[in-house]
Task: inverse folding
């Protein structure tokens, strides 16, 4: 994996004025602008999670973000479990270590609140993302994602 040359990103706590840039990064990655979704998602995360959402900033510009949570016994999941909910990196900064830095920093926050196991969900067919998380040390866990398709 290529690393960032020159200035390294600063990883910091997300601020309200970062939302427009997060929406822009999401739009670049998915090809769709979702401002309402992101306003609600960030607000919910801030209210619910004991962890801060984080951004990676370079030269005064947000180039990546991560949202996570520490479990509080929801659905029988013990409180030592953390979740990486969403991670996004500006396509111009992908494959340069930004996502790795974001994950490492949110895991540091998770440790502070007693998390010792971290989960995330990845599409089984997203080979690039599976390889990335594998390189970060993630492996298949004990939980199984179940799915039910509702038909018309």
Result:
């Amino acid at each position: 994996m290529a690393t960032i040359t020159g200035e390294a990103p600063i990883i910091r706590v997300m601020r309200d004025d970062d939302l427009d840039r997060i929406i822009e990064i999401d739009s670049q990655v998915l090809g769709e602008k979702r401002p309402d979704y992101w306003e609600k998602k960030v607000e919910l995360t801030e209210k619910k999670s004991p962890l801060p959402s984080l951004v990676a900033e370079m030269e005064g510009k947000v180039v990546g973000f991560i949202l996570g949570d520490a479990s509080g016994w929801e659905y029988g999941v013990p409180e030592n479990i953390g979740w990486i909910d969403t991670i996004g990196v500006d396509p111009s900064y992908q494959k340069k270590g930004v996502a790795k830095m974001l994950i490492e920093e949110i895991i540091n926050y998770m440790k502070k609140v007693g998390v010792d196991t971290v989960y995330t969900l990845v599409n089984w067919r997203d080979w690039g993302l599976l390889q990335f998380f594998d390189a970060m040390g993630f492996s298949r866990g004990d939980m199984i994602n179940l799915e039910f398709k509702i038909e018309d």
The first strand starts at residue 10 and ends at 13.
